[in-house]
Design goal:
Blueprint: H1 2-10, H2 14-50, E1 52-58, E2 69-79, E3 82-85, E4 91-96, E5 103-104, E6 109-113, H3 116-158, H4 164-203, E7 206-208, E8 213-218, E9 225-226, E10 236-237, E11 241-244, E12 249-256, E13 268-273, E14 280-293, E15 298-305, E16 317-323, E17 337-340, E18 344-347, E19 350-357, E20 360-365, E21 372-373, E22 376-379, E23 388-391, E24 403-405
Parallel strand pairs: 1-24, 9-10
Antiparallel strand pairs: 1-23, 2-12, 2-16, 3-11, 4-6, 4-9, 5-8, 6-7, 8-11, 12-15, 13-14, 13-16, 14-15, 17-22, 18-19, 19-20, 21-22
């Protein structure tokens, strides 16, 4: 038994040896895992920065009038009547009675300035007018009495009952009172002018709407100082709010000067807002502005909207289709999507369009329609509406290439 115990004590404990071996290998395993993770991150970062930078546009559903369009152009909704309303004098705001989105009428009070000093000036001017009018009334009474006295003195002088000098003094007093009445009338007129000036200054403490419209921006709050002109230091507001006359909304588009001959005043058109691509708004050409942009080689065209709708707001993007008069009623709905002509590339003798999907470029073989719509081409099938299409794809771009979107 003693020999068996001795042999048991000499046996090697393999579990202890394995645990020590595993503990010695653990730092190496952690290091390998970290190295692999850093290598993967570096590879991802390198591939990310090595990706081709592209600019995309959205494939749009054609409007109902596109089939009868002689030309298409893009632009923005603009307002012919828009004003930043400010006070006509320097002052501190005590009331601001509007918020963004409020509809206001012409002459409606928008804000008030502190008016204590102007109220005092107005009261003083009113008192001055009252004093001047009272003085005139007093002079008229004195003149009436002087006229009666002069008449009696003249009668008595003719009878030789009073000296001639006394009658002359009475007439002189009458003439002096009449001169004072003339001076008093001028002073009363001056007092009324001062009252009118004080009244105008007092009215300047009230900011009113110059026309009916909608408040699109509120620029000042109660307690701020407003001024009709800019002041140094940056602590003075130059406007209280911005008002837009929604009935004056129209569309301004830039037409390439090479195609401006296709556009004529009063020709029919259709407008499609980027926000509502399925809504066609009847429109017409108001005027062709007789000047060109040398840098963009475009001519400005004003387009009037024949329908007013609360959904139409300033600065919305819009696509305008200029229609032939005889084809306006015969316009049909086109199938497919519209993309810029510059987005259609040639690869191996085929027309292709690249879209962006999961940060990779995907090539789509397409057959563009023969009819053109300004700088847009109709793709009957192969591209879905709303797809992100790569505009002006580089020659090196291939299917599956990793891409990054250019910053706007």
């Amino acid at each position: 038994m003693d020999d068996s115990k001795l042999l048991g004590e000499l046996r090697i404990d393999r579990s202890t040896r394995d645990a020590k071996a595993t503990a010695s290998r653990m730092p190496w395993l952690v290091g390998v895992v970290l190295l692999l993770a850093l290598t993967g991150a570096a590879a991802w970062w390198w591939s990310r920065n090595d990706a081709m930078v592209v600019r995309t546009v959205t494939a749009k559903v054609p409007a109902a009038g596109d089939s009868g369009a002689v030309l298409q152009a893009t632009g923005y909704v603009t307002a012919r009547r828009m004003a930043t309303v400010s006070a006509q004098m320097l002052g501190t705001l005590t009331d601001v009675l509007i918020e963004e989105g409020d509809r206001v009428e012409k002459g409606q009070i928008l804000a008030r300035l502190e008016d204590g000093a102007h109220q005092a000036q107005l009261n003083s001017a009113k008192a001055g007018v009252n004093v001047a009018q009272a003085r005139l009334a007093e002079l008229r009474v004195q003149i009436a009495q002087a006229e009666r006295d002069a008449a009696r003195q003249a009668e008595l002088g003719a009878q030789g009952l009073v000296p001639v000098q006394s009658a002359e003094q009475t007439r002189t007093q009458l003439d002096a009172l009449r001169a004072q009445l003339h001076t008093g009338s001028a002073q009363a007129e001056q007092s009324r002018a001062q009252l009118a000036s004080a009244q105008v200054n007092f009215e300047y403490t009230v900011v009113r709407a110059p026309f009916a419209g909608v408040v699109t921006a509120k620029a000042a709050q109660v307690g701020e100082i407003v001024s009709p002109s800019a002041a140094g230091g940056g602590y003075t507001r130059t406007g209280v709010c911005t008002i837009v006359d929604m009935d004056s909304l129209e569309v301004g588009v830039d037409v390439n000067e090479a195609y401006i001959g296709r556009v004529q005043a009063n020709m029919p058109a259709e407008a499609v807002l980027d926000a509502y691509p399925d809504w066609s708004i009847p429109a017409h050409v108001i005027a062709i502005v007789p000047t060109a942009d040398r840098g963009k080689a475009t001519v400005k065209v004003r387009v009037g909207l024949d329908q007013k709708d609360p959904r139409i707001v300033p600065d919305m993007g819009v696509r305008v289709s200029f229609l032939e008069a005889e084809r306006k009623e015969a316009a049909i709905v086109l199938e497919g999507v519209l993309v810029p002509a510059s987005s259609i590339a040639q690869r191996d003798g085929r027309s292709v369009v690249f879209t962006v999907e999961d940060e990779h470029a995907r090539s789509h073989a397409v057959n563009p329609a023969a009819q053109t719509f300004g700088d847009q081409r109709l793709i009957p099938d192969g591209i879905r509406a709303g797809a992100r299409v790569i505009d002006a794809p580089p020659e090196a771009l291939v299917d599956g290439a990793q891409v990054r979107l250019a910053k706007p």
